[in-house]
Amino acid sequence: MDQKSLLKLDLGNIFADAVGAEHGVSPAEFDALSGPVADFTRDIQRRRQNGEVGFMDLPYDSTLAEDIESKAGELSSWCENFVVLGIGGSALGNITVRDALGHSLKKQTRSCRSAGRNSPDIFILDNIDPVLISEFFDFIAPQLSRTAFNVITKSGSTAETMSQFLHVRELLARTGGCSSEKQIILTTDPDAERSLLRRIGDSGGYCMYPIPENVGGRFSVLSAVGLLSAAVGGCDIKELLLGAAAMDARCSSPEMYKNPAALYACALYKHYLRDKTVDVIMPYSHHLQSLALWYCQLWAESLGKRDGLKEKNIFTGPTPIASTGVTDQHSVMQLYQDGPFDKVITFIEVDCCRRERVPICENDVEPDLRYLSGKSFNELFQAELTATRCALRDKQRPNCTIKLPEVSARTLGELFMFFEYAVTYSGCLYGVDAFDQPGVELGKKYTYGLMGRNGFMPPALD
Ligand code: PA5
Fold first, then answer.
1. What's the CA-to-centroid distance between 139 and ligand 1, angstroms?
2. What's the half-sphere exposure (Cβ side, CA atoms, 13 Å) at 353?
3. pLDDT band at residue 447, thresholds of 50, 70 and 90?
4. Is the CB of 440 inside a 6 Å radius of any atom of ligand 1?
5. What confidence tens digit (pLDDT) does each residue in 225-248 have?
6. Last residue of some domain: 205, 238, 271?
7. What is the pTM of this model?
8. What's the confidence (pLDDT) of residue 112?
9. Domain count, the chain
10. Using a 6 Å cutoff on CB, does residue 198 contact ligand 1?
11. Residue 106, pLDDT score
12. Is 458 inside any structural domain?
């Protein structure tokens, strides 16, 4: 297996020599974390060996990958639309893959079509806003019999997803030419004791995929949760998994300076301790906008905690914010540069020079616009990122950059694994359980209570 990792991490602008002693960390402060990082690594890998934490083992399930590729091929033979019904960790990774690889997928789709294989359109319905639901099912109605639905819920009981499942099952049952057994695929916990959806699936003859018990929702994109919609959309899921495996190899190192996820977690945590409690993620890539939203969920649900591992009521956690370059240079960047010194910005830089050159214009133009003529959007895009990064540095705003040669299945796999490890190391640094989400659970329980589910109490209302 070729495990060459392509991601590079540039932390230069988080240090005092770049942004000043008041706002940057010193190399000595950073060095002091090498010992704790080695201990954290041993602990994380021990938990992995014990089977307590499983996201880092997902890239190695080649049987599942084969099975999913074959299912994707079968689906592509009859379906025009592939609809994911899920929310949170059961949707955001799917959206990220679809949006990141969108353009290349279209190209692949065309070549697949000419080779006689269809690649269905991917929809991800991660809301139950009645307006959206009604508009979506009106839109899909003419092609309902050629639409597959992948219901994804680890717990097998989330109200949003289960209501969508019930709606679709009934719709298919009453529509001629449709079949819920053929058109609905369930992805859930394999244990029927834990998952109601699994029990329904067992008795209903549905095709089902498992979500390993030791893989939580927001860490599940490289399981069947994310892989099926990715494969159906034309993504090379083996490349995605190879990228993730390459990053797993780097992030398993107990040596901090060889472990990019540990370095990144330490950089952000050191700044959190200096009241820089806002972590901005800012990809300079239109296609990675959804990755930023996936990151926000991963960061917020994993680190935003009331209770620590050793102490109760610590009320900790950084606030993640998603921005996009260059668009947000003309929006929130004013705040990032001149507002409170409470942020660390993470750029994701994709090598523009490796991409097809897109000229702005070649002819002579108005004198004041000549600086653009003969140049490319690639150069302008890169210049804007460099300018923003330097402006932030000069205004003593710590920032770092994750560099990728391209947005591809391979680098996306690396990014997923990098951030999942980074949040795991962050959990160790903040002293919280990065794998639970008690706040989300409480909201779910109150919803059940308000909707009259047996055994659940509604919240006290005004
Ligand atoms: O990361 C998580 O655990 C959550 O965001 C869940 O993915 C989300 O609440 C949906 O839960 P489920 O997959 O059980 O429907």
1. 27
2. 2
3. confident
4. yes
5. 999 999 999 999 999 999 999 999
6. 238
7. 0.95
8. 45
9. 2
10. no
11. 56
12. no
Nearest ligand 1 atom to alpha carbon 160: 15
Q: Indicate which CATH number applies to the domain containing 102.
A: 3.40.50.10490
Confirm or reject: Cβ of 317 under 6 Å from ligand 1: no
pLDDT at 115: 44
Q: Residues 23, 160, 270, 301: which is the catalytic one?
A: 301
Domain co-membership, 401 together with 269: yes
Question: Are both 217 and 137 inside the same structural domain?
Answer: yes
Please compute the mean of the pLDDT values over residues 93-116 and round it to a whole number.
67
Which pLDDT score is estimated for 441? 79
pLDDT at 355 over 60: yes
330 is known as an active-site residue: yes
Is residue 29 one of the residues assigned to a domain?
A: yes
Among candidate residues 195, 222, 238, the one where a domain is terminated: 238
Judge if 19 and 139 occupy the same domain: no
Q: In this predicted structure, what is the pLDDT of residue 103? A: 54
Question: Is the CB of 89 within 6 Å of ligand 1?
Answer: yes
The strand pairing partners of 404, in sequence order, are 350
Closest residue to atom 2 of ligand 1, CA basis: 217
Q: Which of 262, 246, 254, 297 is nearest to 11 (CA)?
A: 262
Kindly state the tokens that stand for 360: 């702005």
Does some domain include residue 284? yes
Q: How far is the CA of 388 from the centre of ligand 1 (A)?
A: 35
Determine the distance separating the centroid of ligand 1 and the alpha carbon of 133, expressed in angstroms: 20
Do both 151 and 192 map to the same domain? yes
The helix/strand/coil state of 419 is: helix
Same domain, 166 and 140: yes
Nearest-atom number in ligand 1 for the CA of 219 is: 1
Tokens 């680098």 label which residue? 411
The torsion angle over the Cα atoms of residues 21, 300, 328 and 336, rounded to 10 degrees, is -30
Rounded to an integer, the average pLDDT of 444-455 is 90
Quick one: 174 and 144 in the same domain? yes
Distance CA 197, CA 183 (A): 16
Condensed to tens digits (0 to 9), the pLDDT of residues 257-281 reads 999 999 999 999 999 999 999 999 9
301 lines ligand 1 (CB under 6 A): yes
% the chain with pLDDT above 70: 96
Query: Per-residue pLDDT tens for 25-83?
Result: 999 999 999 999 999 999 999 999 999 999 999 999 999 999 999 999 999 999 999 99
Beta strands across the sheet bearing 121-125: 121-125, 81-85, 147-153, 184-188, 207-210
Helices (H), 280-349: 289-303, 333-338
Give the range of the structural domain holding residue 383, as residue numbers without chain letter.
8-47+240-437
Closest by Cα among 408, 90, 48, 66 to 243: 408
Question: Do 85 and 193 lie in a common domain?
Answer: yes
For residues 204 and 261, state if they share a domain. no
Q: Is 301 a catalytic residue?
A: yes
Q: Ligand 1 centre and the CA of 300: distance in Å? A: 13
Span 283-300, average pLDDT: 97
Give a yes or no: residue 258 inside a domain.
yes
| Mean residue pLDDT across the chain | 93
